[in-house]
TrEMBL record:
<dbReference type="InterPro" id="IPR050415">
    <property type="entry name" value="MRET"/>
</dbReference>
<dbReference type="InterPro" id="IPR039261">
    <property type="entry name" value="FNR_nucleotide-bd"/>
</dbReference>
<dbReference type="InterPro" id="IPR001041">
    <property type="entry name" value="2Fe-2S_ferredoxin-type"/>
</dbReference>
<keyword id="KW-0285">Flavoprotein</keyword>
<feature type="domain" description="2Fe-2S ferredoxin-type">
    <location>
        <begin position="257"/>
        <end position="345"/>
    </location>
</feature>
<protein>
    <submittedName>
        <fullName>2Fe-2S iron-sulfur cluster-binding protein</fullName>
    </submittedName>
</protein>
<feature type="domain" description="FAD-binding FR-type">
    <location>
        <begin position="2"/>
        <end position="103"/>
    </location>
</feature>
<keyword id="KW-0560">Oxidoreductase</keyword>
<dbReference type="InterPro" id="IPR036010">
    <property type="entry name" value="2Fe-2S_ferredoxin-like_sf"/>
</dbReference>
<dbReference type="InterPro" id="IPR006058">
    <property type="entry name" value="2Fe2S_fd_BS"/>
</dbReference>
<keyword id="KW-0001">2Fe-2S</keyword>
<dbReference type="InterPro" id="IPR008333">
    <property type="entry name" value="Cbr1-like_FAD-bd_dom"/>
</dbReference>
<dbReference type="Pfam" id="PF00970">
    <property type="entry name" value="FAD_binding_6"/>
</dbReference>
<dbReference type="Pfam" id="PF00111">
    <property type="entry name" value="Fer2"/>
</dbReference>
<dbReference type="InterPro" id="IPR001709">
    <property type="entry name" value="Flavoprot_Pyr_Nucl_cyt_Rdtase"/>
</dbReference>
<dbReference type="InterPro" id="IPR012675">
    <property type="entry name" value="Beta-grasp_dom_sf"/>
</dbReference>
<keyword id="KW-0274">FAD</keyword>
């Protein structure tokens, strides 16, 4: 998970006047590292910075990977990608990460997206239509008709899967900004569905409040947040210690906990030094634990505390409800209790 790969840009697609899709070729040798689930993201070296962009392709579409980038005012990474990347360019990319996506594509899905928030959502839609049996409702908000990313692709999906897919477009120039009351009305007929939200913070807050007012349980509401990384994992992330090697920072004798980790269907148990972050421990033990930024600024390393207690040194992505459900960031977690049980399931 830690090693960046040089991927070749196969093509750059102009989706709208301010959004581009970057399609990467993945070689046979890179295929295993770049297997992904719908809803995950890639971390790219964009000039002098690292940025996370959701995959808008779906796994069944072949070996090419596609991320979609929308320009933001003053956004160095997005503007650099839109201005500089062309077919044939090489880009350093970290393998897929993230936990935004349904556990089963047979579930009924209620999807709220706004602007470039459609990128992980369209991947989920395409995969669910191909692999699942559930109904899908997509509410997609944009400024105007010209701002709708994937407009043609979504129209084809809606036409070909009219029995399962309903798409509701919301245009600010026609209907104004979508508020809590409007989003609540749109969601009310689908109160038993699993909900996924992605878009600008005000839109996500309104949609989340609308679902809360309808009585959606927190466990059925999933949020994907776009956060610009403060550091650069391509330059500043220290390489993990080899399996079994003692961490660099000295740990006083006796100041350890015991951690049980369920990852990829296997449970392992380790002694956990109290001054060592959980992610660093797992990587040192040779586990393929997911991560990207290592700074507490993305959700790539998120896991669940089943029992015991940890302290997070930094957290810029999880909200209080996530934490109340036991979700933590492994890259920032230190043990507080003598025994801790962690699950990545």
């Amino acid at each position: 998970m830690s090693e960046p790969h040089a991927l070749t840009v196969a093509e750059v697609i102009e989706e709208t006047s301010d959004a581009r899709s970057v399609v990467f070729e993945v070689t046979a040798e890179q295929e295993e590292a770049f297997r992904y689930r719908p809803g995950q993201f890639l971390t790219l070296r964009a000039g002098a910075v690292a940025r996370c962009y959701s995959l808008s392709s779906a796994p069944h579409e072949g070996s090419r990977l596609k991320v979609t980038v929308k320009r933001t005012d003053g956004g160095y990474g997005s503007n650099w990608i839109c201005d500089n990347l062309r077919a044939g360019a090489k880009v350093e990319v970290l393998p897929p990460a993230g936990v935004f996506g349904p556990r089963s594509f047979d579930e009924d899905l209620l999807l709220f997206a706004a602007g470039s928030g459609i990128t992980p959502v369209v991947s989920i839609v395409k995969a669910a239509l191909r692999e699942g049996s559930g109904r899908i409702v997509l509410v997609y908000a944009n400024r105007d008709e010209r701002s709708v990313i994937f407009a043609d692709e979504l129209a084809v999906l809606a036409r070909d899967h009219a029995d399962r897919l309903l798409i509701v477009h919301w245009l600010e120039t026609v209907q104004g900004l979508p508020g809590v009351a409007q989003l609540r009305a749109l969601a009310e007929p689908f109160a038993s569905f699993e909900a996924f939200l992605c878009g600008p913070a005000p839109f996500m807050a309104a949609a989340k409040q609308a679902l809360e007012e309808l009585g959606f349980p927190r466990r059925r509401v999933h949020l994907e947040k776009f956060v610009s990384l403060g550091g650069n994992p391509f330059e500043t992330a220290a390489a993990p210690a080899p399996a079994g090697e003692t961490p660099v920072a000295p740990v006083p004798s006796g100041e350890t906990s015991t951690v049980r980790v369920n990852l990829d269907g296997e449970e392992r148990e380790f002694s956990w030094p109290r001054q060592q972050k959980l992610l660093d421990l797992l990587l040192a033990k040779g586990l393929d634990a997911p991560y990207s930024c290592r700074e507490g600024q993305c959700s790539a390393c998120a896991c669940r505390i089943v029992s015991g207690e940890v302290k997070m040194l930094n957290n810029e992505v999880l909200d209080s409800e996530d934490i109340a459900e036991g979700i933590v960031l492994a890259c920032q977690s230190l043990p507080l209790t003598d025994e801790v049980s962690v699950s990545y399931e």
